[in-house]
Amino acid sequence: MFIGAMSYGILATIVKYANNLGIHTSVLTFMQAFAGFVLLTLLAQTVKSNEQRQPPSRLKLIFFGTSFGMTSIFYYLSIQYIPVSMGIILLMQSIWMGVVLEAILQKKIPGTVKILATLTILTGTLLATNIFFESATINWKGIMLGMLAASSYTVSIYASSNIETGTNSIIRSQYFVLGALIFVTAYWNMDIVTYFVAKDAFFWGTILALFGTVIPPLLFTRGIPLVGIGIGAIIAAVEIPVSILSAHLVLDERITVFQWTGVVIILLSVVVVNLPRRKK
Predict the structure, then answer these.
(1) How far apart are CA 216 and CA 39, in angstroms?
(2) Which residues touch 248 (CB under 8 Å, ≥6 apart)?
(3) What pLDDT digit, counting tens, does each position of 198-252 carry?
(4) DSSP result, 113-155
(5) Is the separation of the CB atoms in 91 and 75 below 8 Å?
(6) pLDDT over threshold 70, residue 178
(7) With 70 as the cut, is the pLDDT of residue 119 above it?
(8) Could you report the per-residue pLDDT of 249-264, keeping only the tens digit for each?
(9) What one-character-per-residue DSSP string does 72-102 give?
(10) Number of H helices and number of E strands within the chain?
(11) What mean pLDDT value characterizes the chain?
(12) 92-101 burial, b if ≥16 CB within 10 A, otherwise e?
């Protein structure tokens, strides 16, 4: 779980570093989805012969897989306008968005702890994005793209937890990523061809596919049953400090004390909302 979260955490830094080298975001997102689909298709061949359960609804998996493509596009575009440290904080708004989505789907008001945790996360976000102290330099286009990424990420989490869960995780991931590949290709279309440079595209695309499309899902699928969903969510939250720290070390992004305070508040909220409760 920890290694999987770290893999997700360094994605944005890799993308921004590649952008600084002149590699276009359209090529990075396309190659991440394409290389990920190829790798997962090869892995899927090893399990199909052992797959005895009911065949999955491929169209449903592909449809929900488009949310993965949306997340990559919106997230990678957002960090063109805002620092990576701010981008990851906005992406993690999926924590409270998931609570809202759960309440809508279950038609049930969230418990007091979840509501308080949501408010605390929002407070931590205001500090972590440094919005009070650098409002003049805040790029609202980047903020909007970051929130769109969080929204689509929330749908991705829902799909991962609820869609065709009886199917082998590798096969599910294969069709999810196929949906992402279709959406990314449709979104960027000719930009992919215009900015495509084979050597750079295959190198960075494969790295992004490994750390964003292949390694984390496989490790999470293995880890969550062992540690449980609650502890898994707490461990997965390490993605936030890893992303911020990697941006600081690789991209030399400045992180203030107020931002680290906001990060700590968000992490504590994740821990509290996932602590086991004593039954009455």
Answers:
(1) 13
(2) 85, 254, 255
(3) 778 888 888 998 888 888 877 776 776 676 655 666 677 778 888 888 888 898 8
(4) HHHHHHHHHHHHHHHHTTTTT-GGG--HHHHHHHHHHHHHHHH
(5) yes
(6) yes
(7) yes
(8) 898 888 778 778 877 8
(9) HHHHHHHTTTS-HHHHHHHHTTHHHHHHHHH
(10) 15, 0
(11) 81
(12) bbbbbbbbeb
CB 173 within 8 A of CB 68: no
Rounded Cα gap, residues 201 and 30, in angstroms: 9
Weakest-pLDDT range from 149-158, 192-201, 233-242: 233-242
Q: Which residue has the tokens 């276009």?
A: 24
Sign of the C-alpha dihedral computed for residues 66, 4, 46 and 162 taken in this order: negative
* Calpha distance 253→85 (Å, rounded): 8
Dist CA 101 CA 116 (whole Å): 16
What tokens were used for 219?
A: 């490790």
